[in-house]
Please model this.
Amino acid sequence: MWDREREELVERLVKWGYLTKPDIIAAFRKVPRHEFIPSSEKRYAYYDQPLPIGSGQTISAPSMIAIMMETLDLSPGMRVLEIGAGSGYNAALIAEVVGKSGAVVTVERIKELAEFAEKNLRKTGYGWVKVVVGDGSAGYEEGAPWDRILVTACAPELPRPLIKQLKIGGKLGAPVGKDYMFQTWTIAEKTETGEISITEHGGCSFVPLIGRCGWKTED
Ligand code: SAM
Model:
């Protein structure tokens, strides 16, 4: 049942133009989204909508995740940092694309969710993804520099430590907005000269990035 529902979702995302790159399509086909969803919401696992995952947080809609993955230009062997592990689903998709020759670290500020993500990643075969509990708005210096950084919570502006931790030629994707309502999916690329080139890819809606280089509180 899940296999057919997953395939139908992938076909819709391709038809609507959200998924175009073969390796990202293959990752969406392979990673079992229902294994990352709490049992009360599982029946909606292959609907194109965000779902609650506990602690007041959500797993993003598949079409939004497709936009994030496609605009980041991921490829095998890359070292990728995700901020906001949540359920672990997005980290599993990234892991599927970059493979074990790359590296995936995902940082989550809420301990219970980090544990949830770790459990989900382990049971689906992505136990090699490293889950870290902490404030990801300051990045993860230990594994820097990164080829790609994916922020899955909305920041008031691009967090400086994340830009600093990018490789030359590296890309950072993040929802950015001056308040929680008006957010833009933003890609920042670090050019050969170390400057930052910004492109914007339309509106989006994410929970806030809470931390030293994000929003200071949830209010
Ligand atoms: N990527 C997740 C997935 O695949 O399920 C969904 C992430 S959810 C939209 C955003 C997550 O960012 C939440 O789990 C939230 O707790 C986390 N978050 C917010 N601020 C954070 C911070 N400063 N550091 C790390 N995680 C943070």
User: Anything to note?
Assistant: The longest strand covers residues 166-177.
